[in-house]
Request: fold
Amino acid sequence: MKRGQLLGSLEQIILLALVRLDGTAHGMIVRREIEERTGRNISIGAVYATLERLEKKGYIRSFTGEPTPQRGGRAKRLFRIEGAGKRALQISEQTILSMTAGLKDHWGTI
Amino acid sequence: MKRGQLLGSLEQIILLALVRLDGTAHGMIVRREIEERTGRNISIGAVYATLERLEKKGYIRSFTGEPTPQRGGRAKRLFRIEGAGKRALQISEQTILSMTAGLKDHWGTI
DNA sequence: CATTTCTTATACAATATAGAACAAATGGAC
DNA sequence: GTCCATTTGTTCTATATTGTATAAGAAATG
Reply:
C-alpha cells in the first residue's frame, strides 16, 4: 500500500520552518518558530517524531552541533533540509495551486 | 488526544474540488477533477472515506440527486461544502502563508 | 547533585490508501 | 415483457502512514 505522493500538513510546515532556519534548526527552535508564526501549539514530541520521519524519507538530514556554554546547554541535534525535501515542498505547493487556480468565481460569500 | 487544528492534505484538496464543482460533485467526479488538475491518481475508496470524514466534521453536507437517464446512471450522492469547510480552507491557507512569507531569501538553489 | 535544556521512547488517534463487495439503472437478447 | 451483462456509482474492510501528547532519558553546569 504505497503512499508518499504528498506531504502531510505538519510535514510541510516543519519543512518550511527548516528552510527559514537555514541549518540552525533543532527541535525546540522548530517548535517555537511554528508557534510564533502560526499560533499553532505543537507538542515537542510531535515535532521530533515528524523530523524523524522526514529524515527517514531523505527529505532532511541531521547532525550534531556544539553545546552552547549555558546552564543545561547540551549538544543539539541540528536539522537541514535536503534537495529532495525542497522538491517535495514544491510539489505540494504546485498541487494546491492547481486546485486553487481560478477558484474565485466559485467561492461566493462565506 | 484532541486534534483537528488543520486539514489533512487530501482533505484540503477534496474541499477545493467541492468549491469548484459547486454542488454538482459526487464521488467519481471529485476523483476525476483531482486527477485532471493535479495528475494525482487517488483511489475511489480514498475519496469516499475522506468525504465521509469531512461530513462527520461538518465541513460538507451530502444529499441524494436524481438519476441521469443513461446506462448505469444511478442516483448520485452529491456533496456540497459548508461555511465551516470554507473557513477551514482559509485557516489552512493562512497557516501555510505565514510559514512561507519572505522565504525567498532562504530558499537558495535546488 | 538539582536544575536546565534538549532528545528519545511509548502509545494511541486521525488520515490516507487500495481493493473488493455491493447496489441500482438500463440496453438488448430472447 | 423479463433476464442479465454491463455500466455507473457507493459502501465495506483492512492496513499503512501521519499526527499527537506525555513521560522517560541524557547531557551540561552552577
Summary: The beta strands of chain B are 60-64, 77-81.
